C-alpha cells in the first residue's frame, strides 16, 4: 500500500486515516515533494521497513525529524529527481510553443523573492514563485 504525502495544495491526510485501514501496519511507500511542513507526517504512517521517496523540497531543505522514527522501524529514504536535462528541455519547448502553461502562484520583485518559501510553507500560494527584476 502507498500514500501520497499532503502538499501545499493537497488534502491533509491524518496518520490515523492511513493506519486504520492497514490495521496499524502502515504503508510501504510514501512520496513527499514538499519536505519541511510534511516530512514527519510523511514518515509516521510508514510500515516497518517502509520507504519514503523524496521528489523535491518545495518548502525547504532542512526538515525537522524524529530520527528514532526512522531507525527504530528500519525506514529508508530514496531520492528521485523530478527529471533530467532532456526532460527540462522538452518542458521548456512545450511552454515556449504555448502547449503547456505553468501554474504561477506569485510574481514578486527580486528584492522580495525571499518571501516565496514562507508562502509555500504556510500554504498561501499554489504554483511557482517567479522573481521579476
Features:
133 residues, alpha/beta, Rossmann fold, 2 domains, four-stranded parallel beta sheet, two-stranded parallel ribbon, 24% helix, elongated, disordered N terminus, NADPH2:quinone reductase, NAD(P)-bd_dom_sf
CATH topology title of the largest domain: Rossmann fold
The CATH superfamily of the largest domain is known as: NAD(P)-binding Rossmann-like Domain
Helix-strand category: alpha/beta
Largest beta-sheet details: 4 strands, parallel
Helical proportion, percent range: 10-25%
- Detail the poorly predicted runs: 1-12
In total, the number of strands is: 6
Q: What is the radius of gyration computed over CA atoms, rounded to a whole number of angstroms? A: 17 Å
Proportion of beta-strand residues: 15-25%
CA distance, first residue to last residue: 46 Å
Count the domains.
2
What's the total helix number? Answer: 5
Net shape: elongated
Report the order of strands and helices.
EHEHEHEHEHE
What's the CATH class label of the largest domain?
A: Alpha Beta
- Strand arrangement across the biggest beta sheet: 1-2-3-4
pLDDT averaged residue by residue: 77
What's the CATH architecture of the largest domain?
Answer: 3-Layer(aba) Sandwich
